[in-house]
Amino acid sequence: MAKSKARHMGDMMGADGIVKTTSAPEVATARLATGSVTTAKIADANVTTAKIADNAVNSDKVTPTLAVGVPTTVISSSATAVANNHYFIDTATQTLTLPTSPTAGQKVLVTVGNFTDTTVARNGENIASLASDLIIDVANMGVTLCYTNTSRGWVVL
Hints:
The protein is an all-beta fold and about 160 residues long. The protein contains one helix and nine strands; from the N terminus they run αβββββββββ. It has one helix spanning about 10; strands spanning about 70-75, 80, 85-90, 95, 105-110, 120, 135, 140-150, 155. Strand 8 and strand 9 form a beta hairpin. The mean pLDDT is about 80.
């Protein structure tokens, strides 16, 4: 009697009930054990935005970057800035205080909403060579301040 090339399902199935094969068939989600797919097992560029559920990512998981490559913080009350950050001020009559002890090259980006009364407090350093705060009196305006030295202080780019 000739030997059959057909394989029996019992020969292909492991003790855990999972079919073992040498080819790469699709695997149903229900067959995957919890935690079995890790980041290391996902090939680069295989997770696209089209494959991510609409409600899978929320604002707690993402650092907004309204300014390219710079973390953005939305503030609704007066605050003290951290160097190399962007601040979107969404409420009128607020003060953003510049960082203490800045070093040359540090930047603070400030964008205001539809109002004309935001103060950027100098925190002891000059702004544009003047010992006075900066008032942003144009609605929907954005400015970048870059620290230069103790004489010029923060300059508006």
